[in-house]
Amino acid sequence: MNSKKENILVVDDNNDMLDLIQRQLKTFNYRTYKASSVNEAIEVLKNTTIDLLISDLNMPEINGMELLKYTDEHYPAIPKLVISGVPSIPSVVCAIKSGALDYLTKPFTSDELYKAIRSSLVKNNLLANDFHSKNEDLYSNIIGKSVHSKNVVEIIERVKDTKATILIEGESGTGKELIARAIHFTSKTAHKPFIAVNCGGIPENLAESELFGHIKGSFTGAIETKTGLFQAASGGTIFLDEIGNTPLSLQIKLLRVIQEKEILRVGATKPEKIDVRIISATNSNLEEMIAKGLFREDLYYRLNVANIKTTPLRERKEDIPLLIKTFIDKYSNEYNKPGIKINEKVTEVLLRYDWPGNIRELENIIQRMIIMSDDLITLNQVPENLKYHIPTSPEILKSLKEYEKEQILKVLAFVNHNKTKAAQILQIDRKTINQKIA
Ligand SMILES: Nc1ncnc2c1ncn2[C@@H]1O[C@H](COP(=O)(O)OP(=O)(O)O)[C@@H](O)[C@H]1O
Ligand SMILES: [Mg+2]
């Protein structure tokens, strides 16, 4: 979602560690590149613009220290963060000497990791001062000058530092997740995790254990005691996406969690207190679902203390030009086609289209057109279904004859049915106007 997301390269020979760090970095809104050896890491460095290197020291074959030296030599601007299991003084000193700025001892908490990353990035002036520039990025990510976009930013400002639950409603692709992230990452708890869960995506029999955790041996397959996503988001935000797809059996459990502010792991007898902000999102009409008995009304009210409704793109077409510009900038960079232009005719087609897939669809189409063009996007690159699209707005579905009739009647009414004056205004002669009226 964030075109200015920092790219972080993580190097560790232990794949579990790599996955763990990647998951944590994702919740902090960074983009992760993984490498399990120094050679792999060097390949990534050669092909990608990396903003921060996080590396283990003890690795078989080539030691992490070699990678630090290599990076220092070839990419001196990249800050380095060393993570290591053996916190021996000599290795620390050595790491610092070789240019590593920060050092984190395994095991570390996700909080410690976040602070170390921020501090490395800040020291390297990638971030002017801590959260500030990142926050601005997140707002500038919500592109739009329409009343809709302004309203959204205003609501975010109001709710971000409260504990209120927030329900975001709107069609698919209208930016619900983007808004949820903006709320979290501009709030005071931005340094805590943001965890997104697709409520319809977890099989019903696993959902409870995924969300709330379980106790070792509580069911077949529960080999270890497991922390649920609610606890993993502790202090931060849990984003319940597609909340309308939550099975009824789970809805009642969610309700309990919100009311009691505690969770019960599967197989546990004692509940545990939790402190998380809950943001949910849906593209279905929950009120209709309530009427049909598919969604609990009490849960709906609990989730919906603050409400944000996103507007479909076709109802705020004034945002389209700026979105086009933003996505062209973003993808011309990504595909190395700087200065690529868009033909005015193409913009017209894009403005006429109804965008059933909303901003996601617009973004995909721009991306595709950039891939297919050289330095100018022309009608040739526009997908057929867009080119020959007839807008559903009734205003435009009129024949010339109908327009003509309407215009003549309007003018006649304006001049109190004085046909001579009407003919003058319409720039036709009296004979023609008589014919038309007939
Ligand atoms: N106002 C906006 N400005 C820029 N990009 C946006 C905006 N709204 C949505 N997007 C982009 O559109 C895509 C879909 O947004 P997303 O938040 O996933 O939508 P939803 O959750 O409603 O389906 C994402 O790539 C997102 O970055
Ligand atoms: Mg979504």
Give a description of the structure.
- By secondary structure, the protein is an alpha/beta fold.
- The protein has 4 domains: 7-127, 3-Layer(aba) Sandwich (Rossmann fold), CATH 3.40.50; 136-309, Rossmann fold (3-Layer(aba) Sandwich); 314-387, Helicase, Ruva Protein, domain 3 (Orthogonal Bundle); 398-437, Orthogonal Bundle (Arc Repressor Mutant, subunit A), CATH 1.10.10.
- It is built from 20 helices and 16 strands.
- The strands form 5 sheets. It has a 5-stranded parallel sheet with strand order 2-1-3-4-5, sandwiched between helices. Strands 7-10-13-6-14 form a 5-stranded parallel sheet.
- Helix 6 (131-141) packs antiparallel against helix 8 (176-185), helix 11 (248-260) crosses helix 13 (297-303) and helix 19 (419-426) crosses helix 20.
- The longest helix is centred in the last third of the chain and has 15 residues, at 320-334.
- The chain is globular, with a radius of gyration of 28 Å.
- It binds adenosine-5'-diphosphate and magnesium ion (MG).
- Adenosine-5'-diphosphate binds at residues 1, 141-144, 170, 172-178, 359-360, 363.
